[in-house]
Specification:
about 0% strand, about 130 residues, elongated, mainly alpha
């Protein structure tokens, strides 16, 4: 039915927007002009990465990809097993990355988020600036 198609596309939209936010926000882990914003983003990025890694380990792909595929198929759609990132890159930029290429980009982004989050936590930790009594 149409409802499942709309739900599948909504999940894809949330997936794309969360990935966009994750990617665009990465500089906030290094640039701390607004420390509160950096810390909020750091928490979002850590949550995003944890969910991504756990779902990759348990499902072999992002949980949002699995959900969107299930919704699409429930509505009679024929969604293949192509990773969401490959589909998104093809739709937006007209390129067709390999599955290995998508995984490499994801791994580099996870590493950047991990190192950046440690740096952000170290630089914006309020206890660091506290005056001992």
């Amino acid at each position: 039915m149409k409802v499942y198609e709309v739900l599948a596309e909504s999940v894809d939209l949330v997936h794309a927007l969360s990935m966009l936010l994750w990617g665009i926000g990465l500089p906030l882990l290094l640039w701390h002009r607004f420390p509160r914003l950096s810390r909020v983003y750091m928490k979002f990025a850590i949550g995003f990465v944890v969910i991504s890694i756990v779902s990759q380990y348990l499902l072999g792909e992002c949980v949002l990809t699995t959900l969107a595929r299930a919704l699409s198929r429930a509505g009679g759609g024929q969604r293949g097993s192509v990773p969401f990132m490959a589909t998104l890159a093809n739709t937006v930029a007209g390129i067709r990355p390999t599955q290995r290429g998508v995984v490499l980009v994801w791994e580099v982004a996870v590493l950047a988020t991990s190192v950046g989050s440690l740096w952000c936590w170290h630089r914006t930790n309020p206890k660091r600036y506290a005056v001992p009594s």
